[in-house]
Design brief:
By secondary structure, the chain is α+β, with helices and mostly antiparallel strands. The chain has helices spanning 8-12, 14-19, 66-81, 96-99, and strands spanning 27-30, 34-38, 46-52, 89-92, 108-112. The longest helix is centred in the middle third of the chain and has 16 residues, at 66-81. Bound molecules: guanosine-5'-monophosphate and zinc ion (ZN).
Length: 121
């Protein structure tokens, strides 16, 4: 799941380009393995995407499961920093068509700052 920097995947993938700082994003956190940036079309007062630096299309292609824990750790740290940890927040990973995945570089949505319904649409 190593990103081929400068290769086909990195050039074609929107989130690889954000990771490479080739296109701008409002970055709110960076670690060795992950970066987090605000969603361009927020669905809640806090809507942040946490992505691995390495390209992996979705949960279905994950081989290094540590990365999923690292995404969750960054998101939880950000929930505290954004002041929504106590009231509540939601972490979502959409996978493939039925879930509505539109960008095929694994990402964890951190949503909060408003009351959310269940079940999701
Ligand atoms: P998905 O539907 O794949 O789970 O989520 C993709 C998310 O990426 C959507 O919430 C969408 O608003 C966000 N998004 C798409 N293009 C961009 C972009 O260029 N910049 C940022 N910051 N977010 C994007
Ligand atoms: Zn990518």
């Amino acid at each position: 799941m190593t990103a081929r920097r400068g290769g086909d995947v990195a050039e074609a993938c929107l989130f690889c380009r954000i990771v490479a700082k080739g296109i701008p994003a409002k970055i709110v956190a960076e670690t060795d393995d992950c970066i987090a940036f605000r969603d361009v079309n927020p669905q809640a007062p806090v809507h942040i995407l946490v992505v691995p630096r390495a390209h992996v299309p979705s949960l279905n292609q994950v081989t290094d499961w540590m990365i999923v824990g690292k995404l969750a750790q960054v998101a939880t740290d950000l929930a505290r920093r954004e002041g929504i940890a106590e009231k509540g927040y939601r972490l979502v990973i959409n996978t493939n068509a039925d879930a509505g995945q539109t960008v095929f570089h694994l990402h964890l949505h951190l949503l909060g700052g408003r009351k959310m319904g269940w079940p999701p649409g």
